[in-house]
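User: structure tokens for this one?
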Amino acid sequence: MSVALKFPRFDPKSFSRVAVIGVAALFLQAEAASAASITVTATIRDFSSSHADFEQGFAASETGIVLSALGPDGKPVYNEAVKGITGAASTTTNGTANFNQWYNDTPGVNTTFTTTLTATETSPGSGLYEYINGSYFPAGAGNFHFTTEINTEFTFVGDETFSFTGDDDVWVFINGILAIDLGGVHGPASDSITLNAGTAAFLGMTIGETYDLDIFHAERQTTGSNFNFTTSIVLVDAPVVPEPGAIALLGLGMGGLVYLRRRKNV
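Assistant:
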């Protein structure tokens, strides 16, 4: 006994509609998957306008304020050899002691907090991320007296780019070496770097290795506050390294716990 099998009638129009919907869905999924952003943590230090380096009527671009390499503490080092220990040869700063407060927590001088900055991909799959802020006031609207410190790391793949436009001072260090110097009190200024073979050699970088990228910024003068960067570098927050004092306190605390435990066992 044979059984006749019946198959649904093929409808070219229905098939076309399903195919179009399927392709559209795949396209949207691919677009969503390729859209990306990078988010970095920024440490903000809020100062008073009475600080010697803030709101003092300065108006000049000034390179060479900092040395070409970060100090052992991972902070910019004031260029005493060129600017003088009191800043006598500087047009916009007032010496080492004042500068050392910019990126260090100093009770009675600044207040510290953190925020996040998100750079979005310029278009899905472009691999180019930008953060654009023409009214950059993380310390409050109209507050022109603060610094920004961003500590990130990335895996070097070759030919990445990083560009910055902003005011006032901006220093970008890659692998601890000064890569962009936009020092001074000025309107929006721009500079960029491409991590090609030449710059990689200068910065001591090897493809496939992980390196730090640190941004140090200061807003020091009314008016205008701009903070913009565009990069193909996939930045992530660098691991937090405890302050030496915190490590010492942790050691004392652990020592105390060991001592108490031993006493209990006696």
